[in-house]
What does this fold into?
Amino acid sequence: EAVAVWQALGVSEEPLTNTPRLARLAALPVPLQHLVLRVLAWRNRDVRPSMLRDVERGRTTEVRALNGEIVRLGRHQGIETPANWAVVARIEAMEAGAEGPAPEAYRELARSIP
It folds into this structure.
């Protein structure tokens, strides 16, 4: 959705630079790529996204500035952004205390995204 909105606005993509580790990973055979990614995920299993930490601490998140902006710009360009809208609605509900940041809430969010 974000790419469609950016393209409609005339924003071009720029290649990532200074990513030698990513280039080395991409050069590996796919099964080895998967193994490396699984190991990295395991090693970083305790890392928590800032938005989740904000919800858990009762703070306002950056969801409006990120996903909300995609929704706003998409609406302006006539592009539907249901996945980003669902994320904004769900995170706002968590911020308001209507639901907590429990694993089931995230599964429900994933199911609600078209």
Remarks:
- The chain has two domains: 17-47, 49-114.
- The chain has seven helices and no strands.
- Residues 17-47 form one domain.
